[in-house]
Specification:
Elements: E1 7-8, E2 15-16, E3 19-24, H1 25-28, H2 35-44, E4 48-54, E5 64-71, E6 75-76, E7 79-80, E8 87-88, E9 95-101, E10 104-110, E11 115-120, E12 125-128, E13 132-138, E14 144-151, E15 156-157, H3 159-164, E16 168-173, E17 176-181
Antiparallel strand pairs: 1-2, 3-4, 4-5, 5-14, 6-7, 8-15, 9-12, 9-14, 10-11, 10-13, 16-17
Bound molecules: 6-O-phosphono-alpha-D-mannopyranose and zinc ion (ZN).
The site of 6-O-phosphono-alpha-D-mannopyranose (M6P) has 10 residues, from strand 5.
Length: about 190
């Protein structure tokens, strides 16, 4: 394999050349707290919630996967748009998120059940240690754009989060961004 460049556009989040994955509400609906609010939106439209654009890197040991993520501004009920969130299949692998645009929160939970939340704004480089699941949330009015680097063979495990959810929700209450308990959390 030969060295190569990709070009990252800090304003749009485009990564070229790259492979784009679009996540629409219909595909991530079950992750949101307020299912009635999600259904009401889906009656009218199926909004694009986020996109991930991956550089073409082999998913093999020794390589570094990298991508941009663009989360659109919006809410389902009171809950801000977010990524599904995942553990790495290979639990002992870390990741770095470097924020390029917008205002976000990074919600994390470890396999020990400890949780944490970090602010994301242009210039923050968030370190996600091994054994911590991670979800990003756009709490701003603009797109949230960040660049990620991870061991290319880390893999995504969505099942655990789909099953038990996160202990916290990030919602808007009286115009304020609030981190509240998730009443639907299973564990
Ligand atoms: C970041 C990385 C990607 C991940 C994406 C979206 O860009 O962690 O590996 O796919 O966020 O998050 P999710 O896969 O949880 O939807
Ligand atoms: Zn990850």
């Amino acid at each position: 394999m030969k060295p190569f460049n990709v070009e990252v556009n800090f304003q749009t989040g485009d990564l070229t050349p790259g492979k784009k994955i679009d996540r629409y509400l219909s595909g991530v609906k079950n992750m949101f707290f307020d299912q009635a609010a999600a259904d009401a939106i889906l009656q009218r439209e199926d909004p694009l919630i986020y996109q991930v654009i991956y550089a073409d890197v082999p998913e093999a040991k020794g390589h570094l996967g990298n991508c941009t993520t663009i989360i659109y501004p919006g809410k389902v009920g009171r809950e801000f748009y977010f990524t599904k969130g995942h553990f790495h299949e290979e639990r002992g692998t870390a990741e770095i998120y470097f924020c390029l645009q917008g205002k976000g929160k990074l919600l994390l939970e470890s396999t020990d059940g400890e949780w944490a939340i970090l602010d994301m704004y242009p210039g923050t480089a968030s370190y996600i240690p091994p054994y911590w699941s991670h979800r990003t949330i756009n709490v701003g009015q603009e797109k949230l754009i960040f660049y990620c680097v991870f061991p290319a063979d880390a893999g995504h495990d969505y099942g655990t989060i789909e099953e038990i959810g996160y202990p916290k929700l990030v919602v808007e209450e009286n115009g304020q961004i609030m981190v509240v308990d998730n009443p639907k959390r299973r564990k």
